[in-house]
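User: Okay, second chain of the day. Same drill as before: sequence in, structure tokens out.
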Amino acid sequence: MINIDWYHTLNKPFLSPPDWIFAPVWFFLYLLILISLIVFLWKGYCRYKAKPFILFGLQLVLNFLWTPVFFQMQNIKLGFVVLFLLWVMLLLTIQSFYECSKIAAILLIPYFLWVTFALYLNFELVRLN
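Assistant: Same drill. Structure tokens below.
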């Protein structure tokens, strides 16, 4: 179980959304991520699917790594580093998916936009605290 009480004590950026927004947004994003992967695997036409699939896996590992780093370790700076690496891997994943399936790539754009916003929030948390 993750204790986020310490998070509520932090100075937050002006654009910080309320806590209740995260669960529905992530539910929607994970649904799009899953659909994107299915489209890529079933409908993607490219010679080599290994590279995009590996990039997809790496970004997903970084996605799942951020929460324990940020909330359990309470390490805002390392969380920012993980999130930045996720942002880079996600960008590479989208580019790689695009070569095989434009639809699979487009389905990842809302995720990329949310991670970009999260990167801004995490940066501001580092700066303000």
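Residues 32 and 107 are 6 Å apart (CA to CA).

User: Thanks, on to the next one.
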